[in-house]
Amino acid sequence: MRAATPADVPDIAALYVAREGGEVGEASLGVTSDLNRMAAVADRWVCVAHVDGRFAGYGRAKLRPGSPGVPEGWFLLGVVVEPGARRRGVARALTEARFAWLVARGVTEVRSFVSAQNRASLALHHATGFEEVRRGDVVPGVTFTGGVGVLLRRSLP
Ligand SMILES: CC(C)(COP(=O)(O)OP(=O)(O)OC[C@H]1O[C@@H](n2cnc3c(N)ncnc32)[C@H](O)[C@@H]1OP(=O)(O)O)[C@@H](O)C(=O)NCCC(=O)NCCS
Question: Which of the listed residues 92, 99, 124 should we mutate to test ligand 1's pocket, taking the one with most ligand atoms within 8 A of CB?
Fold first, then answer.
């Protein structure tokens, strides 16, 4: 578990495209932009996991501006684990690594949002201490698979 570096861009982009679709080249530009902002502004953080020396997944944290009903603050976004590496604690470890990074910066709460249909993600959030804030059209401008989102929040020590 470690912070992502430019050498991780191909792995992250390939996994992103496998889940979201689109083109690897475009995804690589997005990941590179994230890593540049991570280094220059520190308004986001990307970490990667390896299992037995092989890339196993990534997770992001990002400072989002406020929007109606959702205060400005840090969000966990986009944890994705390689299908062959799932149910081995990788996402939990990526989540705890992001908690640790945020705590080291004095952040005291973190939010997240997921589709209500994503049972694995919801279970992961509950397993890592998140509590539901509300369901529905929870984040302006964000649409969810199935139409219903879940906004979650967790206090950090
Ligand atoms: C959701 C996802 C990130 C979980 O990754 P993972 O590495 O398999 O998760 P972990 O092994 O760390 O699981 C931690 C806990 O989360 C819960 N969990 C994870 N996957 C689950 C599943 N498929 N069904 C039910 N609970 C699940 C469990 O409580 C689990 O603890 P346990 O294994 O002790 O029961 C993975 O399935 C994935 O990449 N899915 C596609 C992308 C996605 O939906 N990302 C989240 C929204 S952006």
Answer: 124
